[in-house]
C-alpha cells in the first residue's frame, strides 16, 4: 500500500513510497519511534534526498550533519519541523524552498551563506521565537530572497545582502507586540530596494515602514505630552492625506472632499453672484425648494468652492457675509497648503 500523503499545494504530487499500518511512509508519518527516526535519517543519506515535500522531522534537524551530499535543489515545502531546525553556518549552494513549511520550535539561520535563491511562501514560524534574530551574520549572495504571506516572521537584523540581491517582502503582517519587527523588516527591504535601484518597490516598503512606526509612537519618547500629540496629529494627517507621500491619489480625494464640504457650508451661509443675487438655501422655507433647485444651487456653489480652493477667484461670485468670508479664507489656506503638498509629492515620485 502506497503512502496516502498528498500535497496541499498540488494534488497531483503524491507519495509513492510503501506505507505502514498508519497509512503513511516513514517520511510523512508523525510520532515516529526511535527506530523509525533512525531509518528515516539513514534513508536520507543513502538516497541523497533533496526534496523533502511533506516530511515530518521529529527530532532536531541539523543541516551540517544531515545535508552532507550534493543536490540540485533543497525543497522543504510542506515539511514540519517539530523540534529545533538548525541551519546555522550552513552554505546553501543551490535554491532552497520553504513553501508552506511549519517550524514548531526554534529555527536558526545565523551565519548561513545563500548562493542561490530562497523562497519563504506561507511559511509558519513559532510565535514563541518571533523575537529571535535568526538571520544575524547571514550573507545572502543569491539573486532573490522572497518572503510572502509568512506567519510570525522574525526580525532580520544583521542580514547582509549582496549588491545585486532582490529582496521581496510582501503580505507579511505583525500583531501589536511585534510592530517593531514590521518597522525593521520593511526598512531593510526598502534599503535593499534602494541599493539595487528597484524604485517601483521603494514607495511600498517606505509606506509599510511608516505605518508600523506610527503604531509604536509612545508618549514616553517625547519630552512633553503636547509634543507627542503634535507629532501624532501630523503623522495621521500625512498617513491619510498622502499615504506618507506614496499615495498621491489620496490627496485628490481629500481635495474633492474639502471642496464638497465647503460648498455645502456656502449653501447655508449664502454667496452673492455677479448679478447681485444671493445663492443660498433658506432653511425656514426649505420645503419650498425642489430637489433640482437645491442641486443647481449646490453645483453653483461647488464651482465657487473649487475656484476659491484653487485661489483662482474669477470674481463672478463673492462671499459678502462675515461668516462667508471666514469660510473662504479657511478654504484658501487649505488650498495653498494642500496644493504645495500635492506638487511636492508628484515631484518626489517623478525624481525617484
Q: What is the H-and-E element order?
A: HEEHEEEEEEEEEEEEEHHHHEEHEH
Which percent bin holds the helix content? 40-55%
Content of β-strand:
5-15%
> What distance separates the N and C termini?
61 Å
Structural class: alpha/beta
CATH class bucket of the domain at 34-172: Mainly Beta
Oligomer: single chain
Count every beta strand, where a strand is a DSSP E run of 2 or more residues: 18
Shape, principal axes of CA atoms: elongated
Give the strand line-up of the largest sheet.
3-7-11-13-15
Number of helices: 8
Transmembrane segments: 249-269, 326-347
Domain Potassium channel: 297-350
InterPro entries: K_chnl_dom
Keywords: Ion channel, Ion transport, Membrane, Transmembrane, Transmembrane helix, Transport
Write a structural description:
With 352 residues, the protein is α/β, with parallel strands linked by helices. It has helices at 34-47, 63-66, 179-196, 199-215, 225-242, 248-269, 291-309, 322-351, and strands spanning 56-57, 61-62, 73-75, 80-81, 85-86, 91-92, 95-99, 102-103, 107-108, 113-114, 118-121, 139-140, 144-148, 160-161, 166-170, 271-273, 278-279, 317-318. Among the domains are: 34-172, 3 Solenoid (Pectate Lyase C-like); 248-351, Helix Hairpins. It contains eight helices and 18 strands. A five-stranded parallel β-sheet has the order 3-7-11-13-15. It has a four-stranded parallel β-sheet with strand order 6-10-12-14, with no helix packed on it. The model has no long low-confidence stretch (mean pLDDT 90).
Summarize the structure.
The chain is an alpha/beta fold and 352 residues long.
Amino acid at each position: 500500500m502506497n503512502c496516502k500523503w498528498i500535497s496541499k499545494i498540488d494534488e497531483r504530487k503524491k507519495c509513492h513510497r510503501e506505507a505502514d499500518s498508519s497509512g503513511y511512509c516513514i517520511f510523512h508519518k508523525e510520532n515516529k519511534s526511535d527506530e523509525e527516526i533512525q531509518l528515516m535519517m539513514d534513508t536520507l543519506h543513502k538516497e541523497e534526498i533533496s526534496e523533502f515535500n511533506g516530511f515530518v522531522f521529529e527530532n532536531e534537524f541539523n543541516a551540517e550533519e544531515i545535508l552532507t551530499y550534493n543536490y540540485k535543489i533543497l525543497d522543504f515545502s510542506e515539511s514540519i519541523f517539530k523540534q529545533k531546525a538548525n541551519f546555522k553556518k550552513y552554505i546553501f549552494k543551490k535554491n532552497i524552498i520553504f513553501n508552506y513549511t511549519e517550524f514548531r520550535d526554534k529555527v536558526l539561520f545565523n551565519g548561513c551563506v545563500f548562493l542561490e535563491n530562497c523562497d519563504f511562501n506561507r511559511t509558519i514560524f513559532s510565535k514563541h521565537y518571533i523575537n529571535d534574530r535568526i538571520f544575524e551574520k547571514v550573507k545572502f549572495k543569491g539573486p532573490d530572497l522572497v518572503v510572502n504571506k509568512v506567519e510570525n516572521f522574525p526580525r532580520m537584523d544583521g542580514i547582509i545582502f549582496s549588491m545585486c540581491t532582490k529582496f521581496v517582502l510582501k503580505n507579511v503582517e505583525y500583531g501589536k507586540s511585534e510592530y517593531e519587527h514590521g518597522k525593521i523588516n520593511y526598512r531593510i527591504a526598502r534599503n535593499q530596494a534602494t541599493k539595487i535601484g528597484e524604485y517601483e518597490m521603494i514607495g511600498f516598503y517606505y509606506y509599510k515602514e511608516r505605518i508600523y512606526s506610527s503604531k509604536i509612537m509612545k508618549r514616553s519618547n517625547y519630552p512633553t505630552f503636547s509634543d507627542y500629540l503634535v507629532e501624532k496629529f501630523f503623522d495621521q494627517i500625512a498617513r491619510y492625506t498622502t499615504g506618507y507621500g506614496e499615495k498621491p491619489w489620496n490627496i485628490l480625494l481629500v481635495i474633492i472632499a474639502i471642496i464638497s464640504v465647503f460648498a455645502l457650508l456656502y449653501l447655508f451661509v449664502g454667496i452673492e453672484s455677479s448679478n447681485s443675487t444671493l445663492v443660498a438655501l433658506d432653511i425656514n422655507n426649505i420645503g419650498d425648494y425642489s430637489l433640482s433647485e437645491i442641486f443647481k444651487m449646490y453645483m453653483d456653489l461647488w464651482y465657487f468652492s473649487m475656484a476659491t480652493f484653487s485661489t483662482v477667484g474669477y470674481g463672478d461670485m463673492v462671499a459678502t457675509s462675515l461668516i462667508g468670508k471666514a469660510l473662504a479664507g479657511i478654504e484658501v489656506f487649505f488650498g495653498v497648503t494642500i496644493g504645495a503638498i500635492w506638487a511636492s509629492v508628484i515631484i518626489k515620485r517623478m525624481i525617484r
